[in-house]
Amino acid sequence: MVETLSVLLKNKRIAETLKVRQALLGHSLPLSAYLLKPVQRVLKYHLFLENILKASVETKILSDGDRAIILQALHCMTSQAEKINEEKKRVEHLERVRELQNALQKWCIDEKEDLSKYGDLLLEATFKLAGAKTNRQLFLFEEMLLIVKERNGALICKDYIMCSSLMLNESISPDPLAFQVLSYDNPKIQYIFLASNMDQKRLWMKELKRMMLDHYAVQIPEKTKILMLNLSDNCSKSENLSNQQGFVLNLKGNKKIPKYLEKRRKSIDTNQTFRRSHIRKRSTSGNRNILKAVRFSLA
Predict the structure, then answer these.
(1) Can you give the residue ranges of the DH domain (predicted)?
(2) How many CB atoms lie within 10 A of CB 136?
C-alpha cells in the first residue's frame, strides 16, 4: 500500500488533494504514516488479543461466539507473526552469508563460489580444535559444513565437508565436550572440536545429525527422523555413551580412524555400483533396515 501511494504521489494533483485533506482533518502525520503503522505493529496484535481473552475470563463479558471469533483472530495473527519472524530471520541469515562471503579467503569449489547456493545458514559458532592453539569457526549450511580460521581480521577457509558425506562421532573420551566430524568420501580427513559447554554441543549434535538424515541415500520419513533425533538426544545424556561408540581416542595422541569407517570406505570402492542399484530397488517395507542403517551412521 505504501509503495502504491508513493507512485500516486508523483501526480501533483493527487499530492495536493491529499495535503489539503490532511489539513482539513487536522492530522499531524501524512497518509503514508497511517498506512505503515499497522504493519509495524502487526507483531504486537496477538499480544493484544491474548490480553482481551485473559480479561474476558475474569470479567465474563464476552459471549461464546465472540470468544470463538477472538480465538480465531489470535490464531491468525500468531501464524502471521511467526511467518514474519521467519522471513526476518532468513533475511538476516542472507546478510550474514554475504558478510561471510566478502571476508572469506581461499574459498572455491568448482563453480559454486556463492555460499548462498549451499542453502540457508543454520548455525555458526567458534570451537577449539583439538591439538591446536587456535580456534576454528564452524558454519553449518543446509548442504555443507564450512571450517574457517580467523587470521588478521580475515577468514581463511581451512576445509569443508558436504552434508551428503558428513559423518559424526559425538563422544570422544575423555572430554565430554569433544566431538569428531569426518568425511564419508575420505575418512582420513577428520577434525575433533571441543564445544564451550554442553548446551552448545547438544544443539550442534542435533543439527548435524538432522542434516545427515536429510541427505541419507534412502529417503527417510519425517516421523522416523524425529524418532531418531529424540533417541539420540536421550542417548547423549547417558553416562555410558563413550562405551557405545566403537573406539576411544586420546586428544593428545594419534588420531585413530574407526574400523567401521575404513570398512565402509573399502566397500564403496568395490561395491558402489551394486549398492546404488540395490538402494533403488529397496521397497518402502524396509523401514526397519533404514532405522538400523541410520543408527549405525549416527553412532
Answers:
(1) 1-87
(2) 18
Rg, Å, the chain Cα set: 27
Give the three-class secondary structure for 147: strand
* DSSP code of residue 107: -
- Report, as ranges of residue numbers, the positions in the chain whose pLDDT lies below 70: 1-2, 108-112, 217-220, 223-225, 227-299
Joined together, the cell numbers standing for residue 254 give 594419534
Distance (Å, rounded) from C-alpha 27 to C-alpha 23? 7
Q: State how far the Cα of 215 lies from the Cα of 207, in Å rounded to an integer.
A: 12
- 6 grid coordinates: 508513493
C-alpha cell at 113: 563460489
**Separation between Cα atoms, residue 83 and residue 81, nearest integer Å:** 5
Signed CA dihedral, 14, 17, 15, 42: sign only? negative
Domain boundaries defined on the chain: 2-91, 115-298
pLDDT reported for residue 207: 92
Nearest by Cα to 184 from 280, 107, 120, 272: 272
CB atoms within 10 A of CB 167: 22
CATH architecture of 115-298: Roll (2.30)
